[in-house]
Amino acid sequence: MDMTNLTGSIVALVTPFCEDGSVDYPALERLVDFHLANGTDGILVLGTTGESSTMTDDEDYEVARCVVERVAGRVPVIGGAGSNATFESERKAAGLVRLGVDGLLLITPYYNKSNEEGIYRHFTAVLDKVDVPCILYNIPGRTGCSISEKNLARLAVHPNAWGLKEASGSISYATMAARYLSDDFRMFSGNDDIVVPLMSLGAKGVISVWADVAPATVHQMCADFLAGNVEAARRAQLDNLELIHALFCEVNPIPVKCALAEMGMIGEHYRQPLWQISDAGRERVVSALKGAGLLG
């Protein structure tokens, strides 16, 4: 599916697990159906929220295959192909493209981090070898490094660099990044609490954890802003801050999987080193879900 005109709410989909630790494919299909029925504009699999860092290659590819087949071309599917080893990112990207994903998410090289030229070459190595739109992922809080302005300027003109997921949480960085946006290079917020501020700078939507539990709300907020109904979008952003913050009260995706389990969507199972949410965290998540009308 052509995703070059994609805007709005892209859900950073969780990967549901069974009690024995295996992937719960029936639950995964139910989640896909939930998003298709509630206006989600695109689906990202195998991101941070999907716990891909704890999954095997076979599991990654099978999850991607399952989602691509279930979606059946109704919305774009984006596959996370990140690694701190460039050749692993290249290999994973190629495998996901063969499975039919419509685009890729490429993260900065975490832990070893690299220098500026190394980061540039890390991205271009993958961009040069694929033929689908790619979103560059800037999240220094998790990776320990950022895409510099110099590198962003160079990467934004690559024909396969289609966008930026900006998750630094810095309006200053987003303002700088906005100078390099074009019809061929767009930005999506990677932080649910500042979607509307980033859209005011030119972002076209959000890659969202919040959308895992409230897809219709996040879709409508983005659609309202893009249609010029800024006040409605602003109100949705502000009215949902309690829920958004609750979904990040502990390390992602622990709270959002807790929320989905409380909503009866999935079993509450994680891959170690992630663990069950604290009692205080659960109380906060449940309270926020009730406040948003998502739980009775």
From TrEMBL:
<keyword id="KW-0028">Amino-acid biosynthesis</keyword>
<comment type="subunit">
    <text>Homotetramer; dimer of dimers.</text>
</comment>
<keyword id="KW-0457">Lysine biosynthesis</keyword>
<keyword id="KW-0704">Schiff base</keyword>
<protein>
    <recommendedName>
        <fullName>4-hydroxy-tetrahydrodipicolinate synthase</fullName>
        <ecNumber>4.3.3.7</ecNumber>
    </recommendedName>
</protein>
<comment type="pathway">
    <text>Amino-acid biosynthesis; L-lysine biosynthesis via DAP pathway; (S)-tetrahydrodipicolinate from L-aspartate: step 3/4.</text>
</comment>
<dbReference type="Pfam" id="PF00701">
    <property type="entry name" value="DHDPS"/>
</dbReference>
<keyword id="KW-0220">Diaminopimelate biosynthesis</keyword>
<comment type="function">
    <text>Catalyzes the condensation of (S)-aspartate-beta-semialdehyde [(S)-ASA] and pyruvate to 4-hydroxy-tetrahydrodipicolinate (HTPA).</text>
</comment>
<feature type="active site" description="Schiff-base intermediate with substrate">
    <location>
        <position position="165"/>
    </location>
</feature>
<dbReference type="InterPro" id="IPR020624">
    <property type="entry name" value="Schiff_base-form_aldolases_CS"/>
</dbReference>
<comment type="similarity">
    <text>Belongs to the DapA family.</text>
</comment>
<keyword id="KW-0456">Lyase</keyword>
<feature type="binding site">
    <location>
        <position position="49"/>
    </location>
    <ligand>
        <name>pyruvate</name>
    </ligand>
</feature>
<feature type="site" description="Part of a proton relay during catalysis">
    <location>
        <position position="111"/>
    </location>
</feature>
<keyword id="KW-0963">Cytoplasm</keyword>
<feature type="active site" description="Proton donor/acceptor">
    <location>
        <position position="137"/>
    </location>
</feature>
<feature type="site" description="Part of a proton relay during catalysis">
    <location>
        <position position="48"/>
    </location>
</feature>
<feature type="binding site">
    <location>
        <position position="207"/>
    </location>
    <ligand>
        <name>pyruvate</name>
    </ligand>
</feature>
<dbReference type="InterPro" id="IPR005263">
    <property type="entry name" value="DapA"/>
</dbReference>
<dbReference type="GO" id="GO:0008840">
    <property type="term" value="F:4-hydroxy-tetrahydrodipicolinate synthase activity"/>
</dbReference>
<dbReference type="InterPro" id="IPR002220">
    <property type="entry name" value="DapA-like"/>
</dbReference>
<dbReference type="InterPro" id="IPR013785">
    <property type="entry name" value="Aldolase_TIM"/>
</dbReference>
